[in-house]
Amino acid sequence: MDVIPLSQLRLGIQYCLIRVMISRVWEFRGKSDDEPVKHLDLVIIDEKKTSMYVEILADVIEILKTNLVEGRVVTIKKFIVHHARTLFKVVQHPYMIKLNRRTEITPVDPQPQNFPRHVYSLINFSDLDHYLNMTAQFLDVIGQVVAVSNVAAIKSFGKMQTKRIVKLKDLSGHIIELSLWGSRATEFQGDQIYEVGQKDAVIVLFVGTLWKSHRGETPFLSGTSACHWYINDESIPEIRNFYASLPNEVDPIEMLQLANSNNNQDEVRQKTLLELKDADPFEEKTNRFECTVTITRLTPNQKWFYPACQKCHSRTNLSGPTYTCTNKECSCTEMEYRYKLSLMGSDDTFELEFILFEQSSKFLAQMQLADDKMDIETMGDQTGSGVAGSKRPYDSTTEDSEDDDAALGTYGKRTKKQ
Ligand SMILES: [Zn+2]
User: Fold this and answer.
1) Is pLDDT at 394 greater than 80 in this prediction?
2) Alpha-carbon distance 264 to 253, whole Å?
3) Mean of pLDDT values over 398-404
4) Is 125:170 a contact under the CB 8 Å cutoff?
5) How do 220-223 and 175-181 pair as beta strands?
6) Fewer C-beta within 10 Å: the chain N or C terminus?
7) Number of alpha carbons in the 13 Å side-chain half-sphere of residue 201
């Protein structure tokens, strides 16, 4: 059977053979590392340096995983080619591959020499702001480690998560901060890097990160399950060149102390809906609550999306030829539609309206609609809008964890119902 280059794959069931390096493998578990694996993800690259994203659903992982080892060249046959996801792209290829229980993966023995291994598309630190809070694609960067922290347990949006900070400097002296979360925080060899970095430069190429800012604070790179790194790997030309461009003497790496969150801080309190209704919004503005409700209905006559500023996600209004963000401190003029689902929830004390934004909308809409045997076309019809085709809620379930809106929505928004 002939080997087909990845660039020549077409949509649909494939009977051909591909020969690829497994460049990266990671498990996607959703919002936190405690959840079961939802899918196993790969980045593969062929001899002609075309790379693709591959997804393996949970029920097939056990069958296929023996041969899915990073750094191994394999042949793969019996798979299906789909359109690439529109969000959280790891590589720029119009298609992606899904493997199934019939897929055959065979290691190439002996392993070919000089087969392409690493997949990345580097972005300069100075260009990161173009990608602020965007989820269309993951970002790859290279930098010299100037500081690294311990791993701390941090309370973030009501949930304890492990976190480590790494500070990176580019060749023009620009320093950015990168946060590694969950198992990525512990896997990063911080102590070793600190030690090596007392005498020598440590250059790291990070792939699979996002450039984020919460409420206008200093942006940082965020690395979760899709994040990988290559440290002082001289087989990567950009790392060699970076190293060669450094002065002979470099400053030793600094150790940062990241404190554990106080468990009482940012506490999420349980409330019934009646208690929530009676809470004073001025006094309780910064507090978080959790309530258990049954969703009774969608709020009638409410749109399920809104025109959002691409940068800060505030509502944006068309004024003349461009959009003006309603956040007075934001000058962004780009618009994207984001989800905003209004629904009524009740417990045995009261009924309140809840508004869910973006990721939590997607997550909940999927659950609810599946339960009710409705489909998203029904929602599309209700609004009569053209956005359903371009941003389908089911299109992008891969990385709920990447959007912190999810957690915000889960704890409910106090709303106008009297
Ligand atoms: Zn804005």
Assistant:
1) no
2) 33
3) 36
4) yes
5) parallel
6) C
7) 23
Backbone angles phi, psi at 220, to 5 degrees: -145, 160
For residue 320, report the distance from its CA to the centre of ligand 1, in Å.
17
Q: Are 144 and 246 in contact (CB under 8 A)?
A: yes
| Superfamily (CATH H level) for 125-256 | Nucleic acid-binding proteins (2.40.50.140)
Question: For residues 55 and 25, what is the distance between their CA atoms, to the nearest angstrom?
Answer: 10
| Residue 250: closest CA among 206, 197, 176, 189 | 197
User: Distance from the CA of 403 to the center of ligand 1, in angstroms?
Assistant: 16
**Could you tell me the distance, in angstroms and rounded to a whole number, from the CA of residue 323 to the centre of ligand 1?**
10
The pTM of this model reads 0.67
What is the Å distance from ligand 1's center to 292 Cα? 32
State in Å: Cα 316 to ligand 1 middle. Answer: 7
Which CATH number, 3.40.50.720, 3.40.50.1370, 2.40.50.140, 3.40.50.410, labels domain 6-107?
Answer: 2.40.50.140
d(CA 207, CA 143): 12
pLDDT band at 373 (very low <50, low <70, confident <90, very high): very low
CA of 308 to the centre of ligand 1 (A): 8
Query: Which pLDDT score is estimated for 299?
Result: 85
The two three-digit tokens of residue 280, written as one number: 């004073």
Average pLDDT for the chain = 82
Least confident span in 113-117, 132-136, 387-391: 387-391
State the distance from the centre of ligand 1 to the C-alpha of 123, rounded, in angstroms: 23
Secondary element (H or E) of residue 335: strand 335-346
Chain centre to alpha carbon of residue 5: 28
73-96 residue pLDDT tens:
999 999 999 999 888 999 999 999
Strands 203-212 and 228-231: antiparallel
